[in-house]
Write a structure and sequence with these properties.
Elements lengths: L1 E6 L6 H12 L3 E3 H11 L2 H12 L5 H12 L7 E5 L5 H10 L4 E6 L2 H9 L1 E3 L5 E3 L23 H15 L1 H8 L3 E5 L4 H12 L4
Helix pairs in contact: 1-9, 2-3, 4-5
The protein binds BIS(adenosine)-5'-pentaphosphate.
The site of BIS(adenosine)-5'-pentaphosphate has 33 residues, from helix 1, helix 2, helix 3, strand 6 and helix 9.
Organism: Candidatus Caccalectryoclostridium excrementigallinarum
Subunit structure: Monomer.
Subcellular location: Cytoplasm
């Protein structure tokens, strides 16, 4: 059983690592950001409600986000564990999570501010869920499905600045929250994707 929370600033590489962990450990990858973006794309009532909030770089209200994650964790594929990416993001969310699940490890991917800005500025997305970076992938189409890549609306510079402010104010305190519970592991996320993945895997395998 591995119930994992990935912590880290916007652009730290949570989604990238979660996708690799999902394959290696056969655990569901639950990204609240991906769930919201899928709802926005499909024009669902939830998507309509959250679009303006996300486009401004602010947080979706806790009640909405908690209810969504609670339902998702009740699904059978989460019985053997899960990888939470982008949740919890506030102390209130973390406390709510404790009322319906216990976290085995919170892995904090620590990345320097300049790297975070560089990573977000060069990030390109595909509607199939693949993520690329312009420094390592030069094509305009997805290597997996051939669809045209695009930049996230909330990856515009002024929105990124607000997301980083929100992270400092509302999400960073979770590092101490999980340290107090004895489940925090901080790894250096400034290295490449593979090197970071080795460090994250060492934590999960109990070698860190
Ligand atoms: P969300 O989608 O969760 O965004 P985020 O936390 O800001 O994280 P990102 O997706 O920007 O970054 P990441 O750490 O996953 O980095 P990635 O792997 O893509 O949330 C979006 C919005 O939804 C929020 O602002 C909020 O409004 C709302 N929301 C979501 N959850 C919520 C919640 N719980 N409560 C309230 N509101 C919520 O990597 C970034 C780039 O770097 C990529 O191009 C990648 O290829 C590259 N890269 C990754 N790792 C490396 C590496 N090691 N070396 C070099 N390049 C790398």
């Amino acid at each position: 059983m591995a119930r994992i929370v990935l912590l880290g600033a916007p652009g730290a590489g949570k989604g990238t690592q979660a996708a690799l962990l999902k394959e290696k450990y056969n655990l569901p990858h639950i990204s609240t950001g991906d769930i919201f973006r899928a709802n926005i794309r499909e024009g669902t009532p939830l998507g309509v409600k959250v679009k303006a909030i996300i486009d401004k770089g602010e947080l979706v209200p806790d009640e909405l986000t908690v209810a969504l994650v609670k339902d998702r964790l009740a699904m059978p594929d989460c019985e053997k564990g899960y990888i939470l990416d982008g949740f919890p993001r506030t102390i209130a969310q973390a406390e709510a999570l404790e009322s319906f699940s216990s976290v085995d490890m919170a892995i904090n991917i620590a990345v320097d501010d300049e790297a975070v800005i560089r990573r977000i500025a060069g990030r390109r997305m595909c509607k199939c869920g693949e993520t690329y970076h312009t420094s390592t992938y030069g094509a305009d189409e997805c290597a997996k499905c051939g669809s045209k890549l695009y930049q996230r609306d909330d990856d515009r510079e002024e929105v990124v600045r607000e997301r980083l402010r929100v992270y400092d104010r509302q999400t960073k305190p979770l590092i101490e929250f999980y340290a107090k519970r004895g489940v925090l592991h901080t790894i250096d996320g400034n290295k490449g994707v593979e090197a970071t993945f080795r460090l994250v895997s060492e934590v999960i395998d109990g070698r860190h």
